[in-house]
Amino acid sequence: MDIAQSTHPDEDFDLLRNDALLRWQRTLGIAPRTGLGVVRRALFFALFAWLPLAVWAAVNHRLFDGGSGEPLLAHFGIHVRCLVAIPLFILAEGMAARVVRGIVSQFRTTGIVPDAQHAAFRAALQATARLRDASFPWVAIVGLALAWSIAGPGSDPHEMSWAESGGEFGFGGWWFLAVARPVFIVLALGWLWRIALVIILFHRLARLELALVPTHPDRHGGLGFVRKLPSATFLVTLAVSTVLASRWMHDVVFHGQSLAAFKLPLIAFVVLWSALLLLPLLVLAPRIAAMKRRALLDYGVLVGNHGGLVHQRWILGRPVAENALLDAPELGPVADIAATYELVEKISPLPAGKSALAAILVPIALPMLLVAAQQVPLRDMLLKLLKTLV
């Protein structure tokens, strides 16, 4: 799953090309010198995080039997972090790199960035690439992950009950706290940083003099291609949602917690996470909205002039001097020019449609259905959903 290098790097933006975390992994031989090698890295980090603590738990009879506490297998969140979320965070790199690079390239290929703005476009990409390549954000992320583990090893005593013996953690517990959990936190915070980079990039692109087309059928002035952006983080969303669902699943299965207890946290997560992923699109909204305001005035005048001439000729029966407005083939008859104005009226400032929302909500919903199925039969849930839709 390697990412091919662009033949025009000054007009390209690769979210992963030279970021510090990838450079460090290449130095250690974990990542290949070219490309991303996401499959091999996902497998390596999953086993590196999970296998030592699982072996320790098995040897010390804590894997299936927790003694006075719950066994390791009962703590779904630990397994999901190591075996699901960590690999998904790494596999997401290939998808995100392809989607983001394709979207950025379309700013030029579609003509949205005119030739006069080419230099400013390249400058925006290069400035964001310098941020991407900086080491300091990743040093801060690693430091924060380690500080969290050192300062709060017992922040969730219940989840670590499988590793405790005589009031102290065994090797397996410390491996999770000092290695597995920091790896998960670094990757999770790293994706927040990458999302921030995309927001910064789109903010810079929104400040360019973009050649938007008011009558473009995508209803976003020609920027409809950016609706694909949330799909770049589909696997990231799935990873985060799965971790939340695994913790709630444990509470439902082993502690009799009701689904109602998770309603507000789930709503908060959906709202906040959706807002974060839609923010890069939201920064384009003021530019599209401004285009729509101007276009409504301009096309209103055009339709009015065209309609006035038609009214004089065919309703009032007055002679109308030869006028290019009536003979312009691109305008056509009254019905066509009215349809053109309707296109302008239907412009939506936020370039996010059903596909963008689905790319956010579907990976959130999938793990949550498994939690809900513990108390509500899946068949009943599907029937209720079908009745709602029909």
Structural descriptors:
single chain, 390 residues, mainly alpha, two-stranded antiparallel sheet, 1% strand, disordered N terminus
Task: Tell me what you see in this structure.
- Residues 1-7 have low confidence and may be disordered.
- Strand 1 (164-165) and strand 2 (168-169) form a beta hairpin.
- The protein is mostly helical.
- The protein has a two-stranded antiparallel sheet.
- It has 2 domains: 9-211 and 234-259, no CATH class; 291-345.
- 64% of the residues lie in helices and 1% in strands.
- It starts with 19 loop residues before the first helix and ends with a helix.
The total of helices stands at 13
- Spatially, the strands of the biggest sheet line up as 1-2
Helix content: 55-70%
Low-confidence stretches: 1-7
Strand fraction equals under 5%
- How far is it from the N-terminal to the C-terminal residue, by CA? 41 Å
Number of discrete domains: 2
**Radius of gyration, whole Å:** 27 Å
Total beta strand runs = 2
Give the rounded overall mean pLDDT: 85
SSE-based structural type: mainly alpha
Order of helices and strands: HHHHHEEHHHHHHHH
The major β-sheet equals: 2 strands, antiparallel
Q: Tell the overall outline.
A: elongated
